[in-house]
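Why does residue order matter? Because the sequence determines the fold. Keep that principle in mind as you read this record.
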Amino acid sequence: MYTLESTETFEQEIKKSRFQAVSGPVATEAAARDFIETCSEHSAGHNCWAWRIGSIYRFSDDGEPSGTAGRPILQAIDGQSLDHVAVVVSRWFGGILLGSGGLIRAYGGTAATCLRAAQKILVVPRVPAQVRVGFADLALVKARLLAVPNLRIEEETFTAEGAELALALPAHEIAEVSRLVADLTSGRSMLLTST
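Structure:
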């Protein structure tokens, strides 16, 4: 899964109606609601939207015929394997009716084009972990941990014997990092996870 690195906009005209899409990353449901409120154009006739955060999603047709706007926007998000993303598509009516099929293509297409233009970053599921390590092993352990892709040292707390490292560890690397820590310290330190 991927998410967006930053906010992206795209605008197009379809049969004299103007469609403007704004997409961006959102971390929580509250952030998604704030994004929709902030990015909705109050001069537009319709501000249709969708967002997905993991298995939770919402969408709105905002007065358009049911199923012609919000669901196609959500399908654009899902079709590009995106997560933690919100999209608002605003429409200014140009006087020509598009019909249900035309609206589905217009809203879904505008959202999809906007999302394709956005910079994406890989979403890496991380789990919290801890390592207690003595001063003799600290420099080597830290250097090797930092070489693990997508691993972050969140906090380093010094003790009388060494340090405690709080890690954000990619879930698929738990066994490998556990083995690495044990090997580097000849079994003096172990990786502790909450899973």
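The two ends are 22 Å apart (CA to CA).
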